[in-house]
Fold GntR family transcriptional regulator.
Amino acid sequence: MYHQIAEELLQSIQAGEYQSKLPTEQELMKRFNVSRNTIRRAIDVVYQHGLLRRIQGSGYYVNNVQLQSTMTINLSIGAGKSLAKRGPLKSKIVTFDRVLAREIPLAQKMKINDDTELWRIIRLRYFNGMLYCLEEAYYLRDVVPFISTDVLDDSLFDFVKETYDIDPDSSDDFLSMTTLGPDKADLMNLKPGTSLLTLAQINYMRNNVIFNFSQTVYCYPGLDFYFHSAHLSSN
């Protein structure tokens, strides 16, 4: 229940409904007709996503980081979600097939069994008619047995959540600079040797089982990345 409330609060913040501060716990309890404990757990999820600041004795204030850039990716929420009202991305499918883990260098680094079968989706993604990224995504077929071709242009995470009730519980994110080789440079219509920011991501379900990993090379101008870190007091 608290996950659903947290999602509603996230959507409300991103839609601008709460621009400076969340309602009080009492007001939220009345709105959602749940206990204080449920509201606190929901707020904690939103806080972990980096969209709130706690001020002792005053409440929860909304971080205005989403207003600082027209293209900000919040890695605390997930690389597929922008803090800006970006609108949908358009996709050009390069590859959609099934492969074995032994064929994929990233899978080998993750020490997945060589015979594990994976869905492979490689696509170019566009925003406002400009190339946004080259995305190479893999889903374990024993967890996600079917992916419809009808959803390849849309959010694969949304499809997996709606179809299999799988939602990323945690992820490992690795940012690095990638120097494009001839193949990727040709796909992206860029010069070989171009250096671009790349995100490698491993996504886990709630039982700490990997269901997806990906590598995304970003090239959209003016793109920012945001990550929220809560520091524990040593006192």
Observations:
- The chain has a mean pLDDT of 85.
- The radius of gyration is 19 Å.
- The chain has two domains: 2-67, 72-221.
- Helices lie at 2-14, 25-32, 36-48, 105-109, 156-164, 182-188.
